[in-house]
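Q: Hi! Curious about what tRNA threonylcarbamoyladenosine biosynthesis protein TsaB looks like structurally. Here's the sequence.
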Amino acid sequence: MSNTILALDTSVEFCSIAIYKKKRVYSLSEQCNKTHTKKVLPMLQKILLQTKTKLIELDYIACSQGPGNFTGLRITNSIAQSLSLSLNIPIINVSTLAIMAQKAWRKYKQKKIIILINAKKSHVYWGQYKKNKKSIWTGKHTEVLLEKKNIETKINNLKRKWMLISNEPQNHQYKKCININEIKYFFPNAKDIIPFALLNIKKQKKHSMENRINYLNNL
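A: Let's find out. The predicted structure is below.
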C-alpha cells in the first residue's frame, strides 16, 4: 500500500501545497507575497477536499526547510509541527534549493543547476546541485549566503556548463558568464518535494517529528 504524503512550501513569494496519494501527485500554488498566513490554510483545506483526503490518512509531512523568506519558513514550520504532533506522523525536511533543482529537472531535464534565491539587499542564497548517475541530487554542502558582488566570479570559477535558476528576473545579467548555458526564472513548487520524500521513505531514513529550518544566516 502506498503512503499518503502532504508537501508544503511557503519559502518565497509563492505558496504551494501538494498531496501524493495512490501514486499520483496533486498540487495547488498561488502567489502570496506577504499574505502566506491568509492563503496557506484555505489552500490546504481546498486540496484535501479535491483529493478526498482526511488528515488522519496522512502518513508523512514533507516540507521546505529553507533557505528562504523568514516569515514564510516559520509558517511552514508551524503547520508541519502542528500536524506532526496531532497526527503522530514524521516530518521530512527538504532544502528549498534542492526543490528548485528538481523543478528544473522536471521542466527542462537539466542535471547541473545553480540556484539563486534573493536573501537580502546585497545577498543571495546560493546552491549548486548535480543529479548523479543514480538520479540522486547532490549539493547540500554547497549552500551558502553569498554577496551579490561575488556571484559572477563564483560562476566563472565553475567547470563546464550549468543552468541557472532564480526567483529574481534581474539575475538574467549572468547569461554572459561563460559557464551558464541557460537561465530560467521561477519559484519552488511543493510537487517537487515529493520525489525527495519518496526517496527518503524508500531508504528508510530516520525521520524527525520536527521541522529543522535552515536560514543560512550564520554563513
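A: A fun detail: The chain has two domains: 5-95+188-202, 96-185.
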